[in-house]
């Protein structure tokens, strides 16, 4: 254990500070496709009974019209967060009719590209901005990629905790600057160690063969309709997912907030010739917001992001520049097909211990060579993480994945113990023990369990996904929302529809001017 980690754990174990561990916030964003009773992508519009996808705070759509996104309120305990996520699912099922929520990260059987509908947010300038951005994504990556789902884990620590650590270190920086720098240090450690999350929680070792649309690949055939890699953990996070030549050279530096913002600012302003050839309009219709490397910052598909809640019309870069980092968003988690809401509370407890470890431990700057090494470790793990004898690279030489994993769990254990001491139970230690079992036996990992299910039932990914989706649907339909929950979500839906209507009724300038103002970052009155 590093000296810094030891000192910080002792500091936070003090009665004067231990309560700060309960002060951070946890939020979940869960993406899930709507499918019909046969497991095919739903061709219906976003259900009006769920409210407005533009303005609803908890139920929206992601890239495709059929790709729902459920957003929990931020809570101090992940158990409460997952209770809220369960409530959103139960309400959604009460309004979905015969449709199902797809249980996997990789999509169901998809129709042709032309039949996959891009998410629609109405005719306001704000709604059209979101829609045209997605047109650009379809142009750049193909629509099938827009049907991939994941779990995003939003994590913050109590701002008073950062001030305690700053005082202990003798830092001279202003509190907000210290907090931002500390979150960037957390992100650097996450990059060093996030391969472990892919081994422990990756759950997409197989996919429907039609997903690749005839593109070249090195996957193996499991059945007539299914491709896989025998030791893969997460094909979703491999080069089969959101990757392209434009982003291949984009590596926002995590060594400082200034470096991170500068890298993304350059990407949203730097022309990319293949996109420039396409232009931004076709036959007078917008087809992408810009022809630059990124249309907007969110197009950068990183495994983790520094975040700040944005104001209406504000860009993420502006928010970070003006008010610093507020929380981090972990973006590499697969949907757990064995959990109705896509993630278990034990996974959340482990993530809390893992991320606190990343926040408290030493975190030196990352060189270009180290960045490439961490990227390679992640790539090896998602494609062959369960391969016996697999080694990863680190500064002191190669090491077996499982050996390094066990070493990391030993280093995280005191962090879990501190969190448990604050709570008065053993939930974090129990979560660590569950992960240790996966390192001892690769067959205990979610990816191995998915393949075992496939092999035991004909080998069809589509059949497995539908079977799990029906199982989860039965759970939610057997536990309908209470009258109070029905009223709460009904009011949210009605308010969101009214808000969208008000936005669309408000006089506004042309969409061309709106896009120009957005790209020039002049929409936010506070900036």
Automatic annotation (TrEMBL):
Keyword annotations of the record: ATP-binding, Glutathione biosynthesis, Ligase, Nucleotide-binding
Pfam family, one: Glu_cys_ligase
Signal peptide (UniProt feature, chain positions): none
Enzyme class: ligase
Record GO terms (molecular function): glutamate-cysteine ligase activity
Sequence ranges assigned to domain Glutamate--cysteine ligase in this UniProt record: 10-379
Listed InterPro entries: Gln_synth/guanido_kin_cat_dom, Glu_cys_ligase, Glut_cys_ligase
Biological or metabolic pathway of the protein: Sulfur metabolism; glutathione biosynthesis; glutathione from L-cysteine and L-glutamate: step 1/2
HAMAP family linked to this entry: Glu_cys_ligase (MF_00578)
Sequence similarity: Belongs to the glutamate--cysteine ligase type 1 family. Type 1 subfamily.
Protein name (database record): Glutamate--cysteine ligase
Gene this chain is encoded by: gshA
